[in-house]
């Protein structure tokens, strides 16, 4: 076997292992519609540097701080979420940071609903992908809060916006998560684990689709967009 063939074999083993890992996690992990809880006073996770910087930019841009939550109660999760909302309730943003199984994680998301029922989402987080079709997701890696917000606002120029409810705007975020779950079940990509339909899990079809979209389709689109062959 030549060195080139050995290299190809090593790459194949690596990709195969990565494929098995992602699919296995999808099949194992429970997904909750409302995975957040309010920490007791004084027990809040301190923000990592990226979260501090994003929160400062959000406040400077006029966003209103909705609340601070923690993600998941299992010990493997130590993730803080800050929820932000624009004064006109047109855009909800989440700023997250912390660790999962001691592995650092962080992400920024912007969500807007259109009058015709579309949900536009803009993020800098690579790992999380919506395969339900409910969200029209654009991913811009390494973008900070302000730059990512400008990208999101560019996407809103040609749509009629439906604001989130002023008296309970953050409930709109959970409505989007519920819409995604319902659509995944409808597409036979997932199934609910409880009668209340608040916890779900991918089936094999959904896990395979998630792998293909997250590892091949989305990166290809990002690459084409970065060289100007696709619109933002």
Which helices and strands occur, and which strands form pairs?
Blueprint: H1 3-28, E1 31-32, E2 36-37, H2 49-60, E3 64-71, E4 77-85, E5 92-100, E6 103-114, E7 119-123, E8 135-139, H3 145-155, E9 161-162, H4 171-186, E10 190-192, E11 199-202, H5 204-226
Parallel strand pairs: 7-8
Antiparallel strand pairs: 1-11, 2-3, 3-4, 4-5, 5-6, 6-7, 6-9, 10-11
Assign a percent range to the helix content: 25-40%
Based on Cα principal axes, name the global outline.
Answer: globular
Strand content: 25-35%
* Mean of pLDDT: 88
Biggest sheet architecture: 8 strands, mixed
Q: What's the Cα radius of gyration?
A: 19 Å
- Distance linking N and C termini: 45 Å
How many distinct helices? 5
Secondary structure tally: strands: 11
Point out poorly predicted stretches. Answer: 3-15
Please trace the helix and strand order, writing H or E for each element.
HEEHEEEEEEHEHEEH
Overall structural class, as computed from helix and strand content, comes to alpha+beta
Commentary on this structure:
This protein has 232 residues and is of the alpha+beta class. The protein is 38% helix and 26% strand. The protein has five helices and eleven strands. Strands 2, 3, 4, 5, 6, 7, 8 and 9 form an eight-stranded mixed beta sheet that branches. α1 (3-28) crosses α5. The protein is globular, with a radius of gyration of 19 Å. It starts with a helix and ends in a 6-residue tail after the last helix.
């Amino acid at each position: 076997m030549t060195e080139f063939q050995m290299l190809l074999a090593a790459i194949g083993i690596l990709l195969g292992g990565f494929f098995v890992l992602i699919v296995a996690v999808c099949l194992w992990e429970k997904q909750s519609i409302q995975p957040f809880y309010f920490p007791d006073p004084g027990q809040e996770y301190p923000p990592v540097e990226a979260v501090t910087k994003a929160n400062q930019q959000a406040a400077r841009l006029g966003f209103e701080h909705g609340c601070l939550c923690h993600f998941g109660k299992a010990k493997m999760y130590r993730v803080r979420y800050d929820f932000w909302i624009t004064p006109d309730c047109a855009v909800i943003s989440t700023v997250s940071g912390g660790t999962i199984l001691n592995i650092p994680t962080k992400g920024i998301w912007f969500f807007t609903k259109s009058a015709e029922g579309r949900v536009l989402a803009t993020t800098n987080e690579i790992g999380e992908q919506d395969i339900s079709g409910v969200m029209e997701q654009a991913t811009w890696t390494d973008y900070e809060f302000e730059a990512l917000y400008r990208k999101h606002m560019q996407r809103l120029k040609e749509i009629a916006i439906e604001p989130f409810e002023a008296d309970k705007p953050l409930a709109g975020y959970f409505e989007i998560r519920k819409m995604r779950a319902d659509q995944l079940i409808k597409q036979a990509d997932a199934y609910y684990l409880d009668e209340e339909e608040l916890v779900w899990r991918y089936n094999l079809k959904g896990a395979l689709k998630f792998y293909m979209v997250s590892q091949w389709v989305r990166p290809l689109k990002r690459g084409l967009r970065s060289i100007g062959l696709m619109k933002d």
